[in-house]
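Q: Is it fine to ask for two folds in a single conversation?
A: Yes, each is treated on its own. Send the first.
Q: Here.
A: Result:
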Amino acid sequence: MTLTTTCAKLLAASLTMTLVATMVPPARAARDSGRASQARGAGPRPGVTVAVVATEPCDGCPGARSFTLEIRKENQPAKRVVVANQTTKVEQIVVASENRTVVFGEVMTNVQIVTVIDNSAGAPIDYFLCFDPSLSPGGDRIAYGKVFPRHFVEGVSWQYLVYDLRLDPAQNRPAGISLDDHYDVGWPVYPPGARNRPGDNLAVPPEERHQRSSPLVWSEDGNVLRFADRFQDGMDLVTVDLVGGVALPRVRKDPLPVNRIVDPAQCPDAAGRLAYAFQVSGITPEKDSPGTVTLHLSTRAPGCLAQDTLRLFVGR
């Protein structure tokens, strides 16, 4: 049994919710998911509209539902596309470009699925399971976390991936990964040395584990990705520059001053693990100060934070 098959079986075993497919209005989906509004922020494309026109039970579909979409392009007959994969709920549909539509859905609680549709062919061409997908403002790239089972597995670690919608499905998979693999999809951009191989985010030694602690935030031009990452007993703001393409990411890592952010006297339970006492709820570039961002900080323990924002220079 391959590691990919094992991962698929473990994901299925962790499904503890009833699979009921519903359509969620886009604004509500973004709000309920807690992800940054820009995560689904590509604007409408002139002359292209896509809508769900039918949902039906599907005994032969992994998600137990099929979703029929209608694609309309100016001066062309409408095309109907059926999404019949592991999607159990459609959260949002984004026309990312004239030739690509992205369907953001859910497999189970906190596990997302992204389906890529070729508008010209009127057919799905790829899909993958992931965590917290974030579409770049121009609709060219999707950042997300590599999926792992939520239960029954020890030593899981975050691996940050990017799918380039301008490339075909084979080009968005590491060498040797089949098009039938819907787990090990995308270009690894962090942590250093990540290769996106089957099972490489499972059974990771404690000293090598990573954990996302912020939204995945794109720059306005879609060339820079930022996020906060917990590693060992600290937290870093990671900046990934993709100007050279997804295969050549340039990474900058800025440690956060957790001793200044958290008040140890107010958080005795966090002694020695201050980075786990808070998270970064937002990352905002400062327009009047290029290279500087403001981090918005939050915690579940009132009084723990010595400050609720932090300005950080991350380079030009």
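Q: Second one now.
A: Result:
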Amino acid sequence: MAAPFRYEAAPVAGVFLVSGFVAGTDDRAVAIEDEAGLADAIAAAVLAVDRRLAGDEFRFLRVRLDLSLAELSALFGIAEEKLGRWERDEAAIAGSADRLLRALYVERTQGRAAVQHIAKSLARGYDAPRRPYWFQRGDGVWRAVPADD
């Protein structure tokens, strides 16, 4: 087996290819087979790491979600500048943001949007005053109902 090819143009550091590429004469890949599939595989590997994401990994998932820093900032309720520092590895990524970004990515790739819906709802009304919860029982089941304010 040939030595692995260090994929310098990868969206995250430390990516090596064992196959699926055509090597050039100057130790650079000339062509990579199924680049979209490779990006999916890189994302799956990043999601599976059992440590806090590195900045380039966090940025990679954000970009794959097609979210700008401003959009992610609004979604997470975190200043854009802080997100930028995380992505540049100038500050440690908050554990809650790491987990939420991973959850958003997983749900987006699996075709569901529950986490993103909750995050967007919180972003819209996060500082709204607390309201009472009203419940009604019918057909043997309790249900939340709109409160009469």
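Q: Anything structural to flag on that second result?
A: Two points. Residues 95-109 form the longest helix (15 residues). The helical segments are 35-48, 55-64, 69-76, 80-87, 95-109, 114-125.
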